[in-house]
Design a protein that fits this description.
The complex is a heterodimer. Chain A contains 23 helices and 20 strands. By secondary structure, chain A is an alpha/beta fold. In chain A, the strands form 4 sheets. In chain A, strands 3-2-4-5-7-6 form a 6-stranded parallel beta sheet, with helices on both faces. A 6-stranded parallel beta sheet of chain A has the order 11-10-9-12-13-14, with helices on both faces. In chain A, α1 packs across α2, α1 packs parallel to α7 and α16 crosses α17. Chain A is globular. Chain B is about 30% helix and about 40% strand. Chain B is an alpha+beta fold. The chains are: A alpha/beta, B alpha+beta. Chains A and B meet through loops of A and α1 and α2 of B.
Amino acid sequence: MKMNGARIVLECLKREGVDTIFGYPGGTVINLYDELFSFKEIRHILPRHEQAGVHAADGYARATGKVGVALATSGPGATNTITGIATAYMDSIPMVILTGQVPTALIGNDAFQEADIIGITRPCTKHNFLVKDVKDLAVIMKKAFYIARTGRPGPVVVDLPKDIQIAQTEFEYPETVDIRGYKPTVEGHPRQIEKAVAMIAQAKKPVIYVGGGVILGNASEELTTLAKQLDIPVTTTLMGLGSFPEDHPLSLGLLGMHGTYYANMAVSHCDLLIAVAARFDDRVTGKIASFAPHAKIIHLDVDPTSIKKNVRVDLPIVGDVREVLTQMLKVTDAKNKDLAAAKEGFASWKAEIDEWKSKHPITYRQTGSTIKPQYVIQRLRALSDPDAIVATDVGQHQMWTAQFFGFTIPRTLLSSGGLGTMGFGLPAAMGAQAAFPGRQVIAICGDGGFQMNMQELATMVQNRLDVKIVILNNNFLGMVRQWQELFFDKRYSSTCMELPIDFIKLAEAFGAVGLRATKVDEVDEVITKGFATKGPVLMEFKVAREEKVLPMVPAGASLTEMVLAS
Amino acid sequence: MRHTIAVLVENEFGVLSRVVGLFSGRGFNIDSLTVAPTNDESLSRITVVTRGDEQIIEQITKQLNKLIDVIKVIDFEAENAIEREMVLVKVNAEEQSRAEVLRIADIFRAKVIDVTPKSYTLEATGTPAKVSAMIELLRPLGLKELVSTGPVVIGRGAKGWKG
């Protein structure tokens, strides 16, 4: 059937199973919007800023595992998407971002609202496409989704000149797509898997270190089975939280800069580190030279560039994490005598770890009536649904959430780990809520990050996205303030948010509900009421202003050089 | 360590900027770079000379392979490859040095491609070492202009890159 380019885009989205997109209209996408007006299969949500639209599509993708889709017009619309795209790129989130472009004949002429978005997004996308002929459109859309979701996932931009949206052609959606330069490895090399199992059988003090790839690759079940079967302790990165239940005795929680004492000690003393779909980020390793100094390292990743990028690796295994773990599980069962013998030996290692656990648990002290931020996080966990989805911003509240919430289910923590994007939490929660209208979705923000995308209150109210927003308000840009306290002689340069904003009135101005707790005995009441109230609710907690995130490994120090909570 | 890497890419707009952007964005070195279509017109071949330790070269080849438009990356080992570059060089050739320029050109099997009463322009091809040896001999005579292609490289033996 013959149709115009705009319609073809929507037909392609439908065939890729897209049910929701987040977009902002403008001159070069007006044709697309005209088609969308009568295209009932796709729900369109209008954010109040394109950056938030991309974060929302990102939150949708993180929560569902499906490809998130965002749409923006050319020029400023497209450049506003950059932070969102870079955020998704750093965390390997499958997304397709559609941007309008000036008509083909005007490209390069500095036309009104023209930006070279292909050039601008080249370093922050997995790939990008400029459609130059409407006949290529369907194939490009197919490729875009295929690239976004396979291998190591990532965002793909498709730039759509206005004339391409208007031009007519026969629509035919390809069933499959073959890209000769793109063949991600799926299966792990059997010989490498054998070697890995042999190394585990030789180990006395093994640790599994899990990254976000386990969640992205839907391999939490396999990972959990393997860890339990082998009886090996598990530590996760921020992105890996939820991949292994934190309430299990083998869980060491978070490692790295704000990781637990015992996770960092375990990594620093282990003789075998099994890295599963993690990328040895500097926030995880601390000083590279003293990272896991006694350990042989097995590194399993779908992306060969991740291997040996930052640390030496003794045994690389390239492949899809779920596939490789499944392959491993076939040879690690009870029949494996060597492993059974090795497991007996792990008991003394686990006892050593338990000693570290009891010596320095993750802790804080709630004294007096001033609310400690960590207390709010613990009460949120206690009073929320077990499958609640939590999105965070970036900073202290993010680390307290990672330390104290206790994630047990994959895809329940949505957080910008790689890029560390303030302003991410609120729109990401909005995207997750759009995907799961029936689930509890909580956005945990600081007062700084919240203000970076607070205009999205309007989107939530308009679209009945009933996110429960939690602001841990210390009237500071807390994480930077903490660094200034510890490393810059308490010179709080530009980190005090001096203006005390009335967040309750702000929520009400948008038509949302606002609640506030200023004393510790009001916390439960506010949370309970907030969760019970229909519609978007903003819960503000006035918290201890100069509370620090601890433990902390100073930037560039070894993991064992932790500043601990007293 | 100096490495000469051949990168076979889709012969499409924007591909070169992806390759070059990868090098600049990740702080990899480019000593020289040449690019042209191949016998298969859907492909272009980029030859890039770079340097770095083993770990950096491994990252470079992996990162190149990761680009969607890259079909194949070959990190050539010197003993299994033939490397050639071409230079065009305009040399001062006044009375006392005219014969010397020609002698040097002859030794290096360079061709005179332009001549004026004050200059010779030579064309020379060869390994980077040979070409630079010639340039060093010409330098004292006065180089007016020099342009080089940078090396291209091809594997030895009967097999093409597809094997």
